């Protein structure tokens, strides 16, 4: 469900870039705040979140490609009929 909300309206690619920029800002803040104890933990969590986001983006792209292929196959099938 959350993936479809992000994609909404075909602007998902641009939205993803914005998320990355926001994430970069959060990282900078986290570095400043995380200079004390537990700073390393926060950095690791952020890295894990980034990996998950990247994985989700890749899955979304694969899904979109698959949907496009299915649509093309349906259109080709209709044209043959």
Report what the structure shows.
Residues 1-81 are annotated as: Disordered. This protein is mainly α and 81 residues long. The protein has 3 helices and no strands. The longest helix is centred in the last third of the chain and has 42 residues, at 39-80.
List the helices and strands and how they pair.
Elements: H1 2-7, H2 12-33, H3 39-80
Helix pairs in contact: 2-3
Short description:
With 81 residues, this protein is mostly helical.
Radius of gyration based on Cα positions = 19 Å
Number of strands: 0
- Distance between the ends: 35 Å
- Topology order in helix (H) and strand (E) letters: HHH
Helix proportion: over 70%
> How much β-strand is present in the residues?
under 5%
Task: Provide the residue-averaged pLDDT.
Answer: 73
* Total number of helices: 3
Morphology call:
rod-shaped
Contiguous low-pLDDT stretches (5 residues minimum) are 1-9, 11-19
Task: Describe the largest sheet.
Answer: none
Structural class label: mainly alpha
């Amino acid at each position: 469900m959350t993936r479809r909300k992000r994609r909404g309206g075909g602007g998902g690619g641009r939205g993803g870039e914005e998320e990355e920029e926001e994430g970069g800002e959060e990282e900078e803040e986290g570095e400043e705040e995380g200079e004390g104890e537990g700073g390393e933990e926060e950095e690791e969590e952020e890295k894990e979140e980034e990996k998950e986001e990247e994985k989700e983006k890749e899955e979304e792209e694969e899904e979109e490609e698959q949907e496009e292929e299915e649509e093309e196959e349906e259109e080709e099938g209709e044209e043959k009929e």
